[in-house]
Every structure is written in C-alpha cells, then in structure tokens.
Amino acid sequence: xxxxxxxxxxxxxxxxxxxxxxxxxxxxxxxxYIIAGHHSGLPDWDKAEAGxxxxxxxxxxxxxxxxxEEALDAKIPVEIKAPDFGILPLxxxxxxxxxxxxxxxxxxxxxxxxxxxxxxxxxDPGLANAREFxxxxxxxxxxxxxxxxxxxxxxxxxxxxxxxxxxxRDCRLAAQGxxxxxxxxxxxxGGKTLSGMAFALEHAVKYEKQxxxxxxxxx
Length: 219
What we know:
Elements: H1 12-23, H2 27-36, H3 47-50, H4 55-65, H5 67-73, H6 96-123, H7 125-131, H8 137-153, H9 159-174, H10 192-206
Helix pairs in contact: 1-2, 1-4, 2-6, 6-7, 8-10, 9-10
C-alpha cells in the first residue's frame, strides 16, 4: 500500500534495506537482510548465486530508483508517528557465527509476524480484535483439560488409543520437571500435538511462564 494512495509500485522492502545501511554500515547490513526479505524470504547476498533476487542486486536497484530519497524529502503525515524503540541492546549475540545466524532468523520472524499482524489490524479489524484475549495460562489449562476430558469420553480403548493415552500421561509427568530441553519422539498418529500442548500448559502453569511459542517446520 502507498501512504499517499498514488499510482505506481514502490518496493518498500528494498528502500528500507538501503535506509538501514545508510543508518549504520555495520548493524544496518544485518537489518537490510531482514527488511529486504520480510515479504519474500531472506535473500542471498551474491548476485552470481541468486541473480537479481540477491540482496546486492536489490540494493543497487533501490539506490538507482531513489524511492528512499523521495520518501525522506516528503512531508510525513502527522498520523504516522516514529516508533519508540527505547534503548536498543549493543551487545553481540552469543554463540559466534551460529548464534548470529539464529539471531538473524529469530529477528526476521519477529518482523514478518509484526508486519502481518499490523496489516491485518488495518485490513480486518474484526479478526485482529479476535486475536486479543486476557486468559491466563491457568485458565487456558482448564479449558484444555476440559477439552481433553470430553474427547476421552468418546474414545474406544484400542491399542493405538492406549498408546496415545500413555504418551499423554508421560508428557504431563515430564512437565513437572525443571525448565530445560525436552524431546518427544512419536510416530505420526501418536497424538504428539495434543500431548505436547499438555506438556506446555502444565509446564507454563507450574513455572509461571507467560507464553507458549509453537514453531512448526515448513513442509
């Protein structure tokens, strides 16, 4: 969408990437990857490998088109306020190259999610409002337990369902352990989605966690 509702197409992701590098040659280049790719995925740098979709080619194209300069010279509508980021951390991500790689991908995910939700709030306020709720983890656990209990009433005690029930019990028991890294290896159809959620809610309530983050591989 164009702020002034003018005709034509401005690739704001590329202009934003240039702006990040102009702001800071060091950290800005990391941010440029994230900004340039928030609609299309993290780009490769080298044009020899990725062609015109590479970050280097896209930055060169954005500098040539000069949309950034036009935007900076324009009068910004009063409705658009500069965000208050507070004090940004200056320390490097731990873990060397692997830590930096993970940090970039996590930051990229944050931008993609925020951009999607912000667009949704403008395009579909009803759906955006439906996402907001004030239930505590304890209340969510009660709702989940009631749902699981209602499902159990109609379950036939087949060998597969008995295995599923055992996996669920093991997950609930494991949730009482101290925070750390846990693994759940279950074949397809073993009920690991609901059993994993049971673990997450039990663990969150026990240790007063505020969020449950579910990361599902893209397949």
